[in-house]
Specification:
The complex is a heterodimer of chains A (about 200) and B (about 220). With about 200 residues, chain A is α+β, with helices and mostly antiparallel strands. Chain A contains six helices and five strands, in the order αααααββββαβ. Chain A is elongated, with a radius of gyration of 26 Å. Chain A starts with a helix and ends with a strand. Chain B is mainly alpha-helical and about 220 residues long. Chain B is built from seven helices and five strands; from the N terminus they run H-H-H-H-H-H-E-E-E-E-H-E. In chain B, the strands form two sheets. In chain B, strands 4-1-5 form a three-stranded antiparallel β-sheet. A two-stranded antiparallel sheet of chain B has the order 2-3. In chain B, a hairpin with a 2-residue loop joins strand 2 and strand 3. Classes of the chains: A alpha+beta (about 200), B mainly alpha (about 220). Chains A and B meet through helix 2, helix 3 and helix 5 of A and helix 2, helix 3 and helix 6 of B. Chain B: InterPro entries: GINS_A, GINS_bundle-like_dom_sf, GINS_Sld5, SLD5_C, Sld5_GINS_A.
């Protein structure tokens, strides 16, 4: 029935809310919803002109109802499409803000336009972050608690240098370091904070 | 005037200037903290604290310079300097966090209410120049995304993104009825839905933002 396809899209969007990464873009589903909406629009036009030409006034409750439902379905489809896209765009925004790398797998799950959006939004962000360059606007949104923390290395990352010395990041090694120095690495997933 | 008098005058003015500098610093930090709390609790966007942030950023830069200069001396292994540096850096971290959270919270609200802010003169005034540029460009990017993805393929009558009427308003406005915790600075009275509510000094209340909005703006109430 009308709106079933949109329902499927919304279910996908709901599931995406709980995921870390975006699932594959529902190209076919979106296309069919757009097609359905255009068909509905044609139907609505036909109904309206039919009523006019045959003189069956729009006062007939049945005709009115039909027209109304058609319009409602169209609007609902539009709303679902926008909600789906908006959710995905918001998730991408979050990733870009926290400097999380958008890896190849993730890129493959995005539509072509979403990929272009990422590039342009990243540019916008770099400009904005640059205007307040003393503060890392992409940094942690949790208030700084301890000065020094224990961290464990999740992936090999070579050597990093801090004021307190050079650390060799090999997998599963543990270090006691200043939180401010390693915040970036924790964000990117190389280190894990131990509490 | 006598030379001694001139000296005494000079001493007192410079000392009082130093003292007021100190108090200005603590006051500024308190103001920043309060601005941050407000921005996070209140549902709408508040005016951008341009001057306050400028002053604080200036001091931050000086602190960063200070840290860099003294880090070079670390090689002398003077324990006192190390401890001092750690303390200075921790404070710097905290101030940076406040500013970061302040800016990000504002941007989140701006992103949420972009279409509404854009159409309203008053709201636009609350944004800084940077934020206005960001909002416009982000909206453009999003519109481009929607359009190319599916919007341009929909029938023309459906292509608007700011439809009012209908069942659901497409433009999202900040919900001014959201409740907030407030503390009273002085005795007063508030009108809520035709009823008058008395407010005691130093009392803590939770009520709708719409009711206390004016008082918070004037400063006789603070948000917690």
């Amino acid at each position: 029935m009308y709106g079933d396809l949109a329902n499927k899209l919304i279910l996908d969007a709901k599931r995406t809310q709980t995921l870390d990464k975006l699932p594959l873009y529902q190209q076919t589903l979106v296309r069919s919803i757009v097609r359905e909406t255009r068909d509905l629009h044609k139907e609505a036009d036909q109904l309206a002109s039919l009523a006019q030409s045959q003189g069956i006034g729009l006062n007939e409750k049945v005709n009115q109802c039909q027209l109304f439902v058609t319009h409602l379905c169209m609007r609902r489809n539009k709303r679902c499409l926008l909600a789906y896209e908006r959710l995905r765009a918001t998730k991408l925004d979050e990733m870009l803000w926290s400097n999380i790398e958008v890896d190849k797998d993730q890129l493959n799950n995005l539509s072509q336009y979403e990929q272009e959006y990422i590039v342009k939004y990243d540019e916008l962000l770099s400009e904005f972050k640059g205007s307040l360059s003393d503060i890392d606007l992409g940094g942690s949104l949790e208030p700084p608690s301890d000065v020094f923390i224990d961290v464990r290395v999740l992936k090999d990352a070579g050597e990093i240098q801090t004021e307190y010395g050079v650390f060799n990041l090999t997998k599963d090694s543990q270090f006691f370091v200043r939180q401010a120095d390693v915040e970036r690495l924790i964000q990117q997933g190389y280190l894990k904070k131990l509490s | 005037m006598d030379f001694n008098d001139i000296l005494k005058d000079f001493e007192t003015t410079s000392r009082s200037r130093l003292r007021s500098d100190d108090t200005l610093r603590t006051e500024d930090l308190q103001a920043l903290t309060q601005a941050w709390i407000q921005e996070r609790t209140i549902p709408e966007v508040l005016p951008y604290e341009e001057d306050l942030l400028e002053r604080i950023l200036e001091r931050m830069r000086k602190q960063i310079e200070f840290i860099e200069l003294n880090s070079i001396e670390l090689q002398k292994h003077e324990r006192e300097i190390k401890l001092l540096l750690v303390i200075v850096e921790s404070e710097l971290d905290r101030v940076q966090f406040l500013i970061r959270s302040y800016v990000r919270t504002r941007l989140m609200k701006i992103d949420q209410f972009s279409v509404y802010i854009r159409s309203n003169e008053q709201e636009l005034k609350k944004l800084s120049d940077n934020e206005t540029v960001y909002m416009e460009r982000h909206l453009d990017l999003l519109m481009e995304l929607y359009n190319r993805q599916f919007l341009k393929n929909l029938p023309e009558s459906l292509q608007a993104l700011d439809e009012g009427g209908g069942l659901v308003n497409m433009v999202e406005k900040p919900d001014l009825h959201k409740p907030v915790f407030v503390k009273c600075g002085e005795n007063g009275m508030v009108m809520i839905e035709g009823e008058e509510v008395e407010l005691e000094k130093e009392g803590i209340y939770v009520m709708r933002y719409s009711a206390v909005k004016e008082l918070v703006k004037m400063g006789s109430m603070i948000v917690l």
